[in-house]
């Protein structure tokens, strides 16, 4: 092909692509109000606020929220409307968490180190994981009191030992409804009520039985969702996001108790998106284990419901992009696309960073990181 023709062809293709995008945007502007909402997820951080391995005493590019934070800022800049969530397992798992538990008094003046970082990133809501209970209920309560965002969970209840379901009390607020100001494709402002509900795998009741026995009990995820989703709709939720600290499949030991997996939760009517964790996996990804009925890896849906899982320790950021259209007097999710973004890649057997760490998070964590190192150096 001649050079002039090649240049002409590239220009023509670029023009056609631009025309297609313009036509799509033009259709959205002239049609019913349309919102593009981006949901962002971190999960199973286990105290890893920076890229440092407290076991091996070395820096690393393989994990750390300070690097994920750069992905979060990048993803926010790409979308006019976004919300950020965490899926639990943050208060136990590394040297920083151990330091916070054993030597860090927690009160209004002393916030748990992990929340210093998370508050800076302006999370919108979170749910608890099973490791939140490893240091006991009191420590968990004292810690999350330092979060500048709501914690939700719908299936942990106060143990009253009376066998009656109707008077059971939720231990946490089961859900929250975020009144989000959003901008549609025509530049108009709207109020979107985003309902956020949390769930945890019931295996936590067994794994932390010394704290749960006589104090707390955990109910079936799917049955709990079927109860609360209509309630949330009646309270004005336009769309509903589930934060599920449970895996794609149920934990071993729960096989007999159906309804405690993400697969089961995805079949509940009214849930528009599921952000999940616990199993330290990523979704969607080309994996033989994820090639099961009901899963679409191209769009990242499970039984038609948008879903994402962002790995662990901050090594990935999870994203769900929702297209929401106002029809027949209500907002409806018309399409979705789930994806994951890694903080590093392996090139020729070497780990290479995809994005640099956020300097603000690094600075905020500097003192607590050094105090944790001093604590670990002198601990018996």
UniProtKB/TrEMBL annotation:
The organism's place on the tree of life at top rank: Bacteria
Any matching Pfam family: Metallophos
Compartments in which it is found: Cell envelope
Keyword NAD: no
Predominant location: other
Catalysis: reaction(s): a ribonucleoside 3'-phosphate + H2O = a ribonucleoside + phosphate; a nucleoside 2',3'-cyclic phosphate + H2O = a nucleoside 3'-phosphate + H(+)
Keywords in alphabetical order: Hydrolase, Multifunctional enzyme, Nucleotide-binding, Signal
Leader sequence segment: 1-27
The name this protein goes by in its record: 2',3'-cyclic-nucleotide 2'-phosphodiesterase
Species assigned in the record: Cytobacillus firmus DS1
Highest classification ranks of the organism: Bacteria, Bacillati, Bacillota, Bacilli, Bacillales
């Amino acid at each position: 092909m001649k050079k002039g023709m090649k240049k002409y062809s590239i220009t023509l293709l670029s023009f056609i692509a631009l025309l297609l995008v313009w036509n799509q945007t033009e259709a959205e502007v002239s049609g019913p109000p349309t919102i593009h909402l981006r949901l962002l997820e971190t999960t199973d951080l286990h105290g890893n606020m920076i890229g440092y391995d407290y076991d091996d005493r070395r820096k690393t590019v393989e994990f750390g929220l300070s690097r994920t934070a750069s992905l979060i800022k990048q993803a926010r800049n790409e979308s006019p409307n976004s919300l950020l969530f965490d899926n639990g397992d943050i208060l136990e798992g590394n040297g920083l968490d151990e330091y916070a538990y054993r030597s860090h008094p927690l009160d209004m003046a002393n916030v748990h180190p992990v929340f210093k970082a998370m508050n800076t990133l302006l999370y919108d809501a979170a749910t608890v994981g099973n490791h939140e209970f490893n240091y006991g209920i009191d420590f968990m309560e004292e810690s999350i009191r330092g979060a500048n965002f709501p914690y939700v969970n719908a299936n942990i209840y106060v143990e009253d030992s009376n066998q009656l379901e109707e008077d059971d009390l939720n231990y946490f607020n089961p859900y929250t409804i975020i009144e989000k100001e959003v901008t549609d494709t025509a530049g108009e402002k709207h109020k979107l009520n985003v309902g956020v509900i949390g769930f945890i795998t019931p295996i936590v009741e067994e794994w932390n039985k010394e704290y749960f026995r006589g104090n707390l009990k955990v109910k079936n995820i799917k049955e709990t969702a079927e109860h609360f989703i209509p309630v949330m709709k009646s309270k004005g939720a336009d769309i509903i996001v589930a934060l599920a600290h449970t895996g794609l499949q149920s934990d071993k030991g729960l096989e007999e108790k159906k309804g405690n997996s993400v697969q089961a939760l995805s079949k509940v009517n009214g849930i528009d998106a599921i952000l999940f964790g616990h199993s330290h996996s990523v979704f969607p990804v080309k994996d033989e284990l994820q090639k099961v009925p009901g899963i679409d890896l191209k769009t990242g849906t499970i039984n038609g419901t948008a879903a994402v899982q962002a790995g662990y320790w901050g090594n990935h950021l999870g994203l769900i992009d929702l297209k929401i259209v106002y029809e027949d007097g209500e907002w409806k999710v018309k399409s979705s696309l789930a994806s994951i973004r890694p903080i590093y890649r392996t090139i020729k057997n070497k780990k290479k960073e995809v994005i640099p760490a956020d300097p603000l998070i690094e600075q905020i964590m500097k003192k607590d990181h050094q105090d944790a190192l001093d604590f670990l150096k002198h601990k018996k």
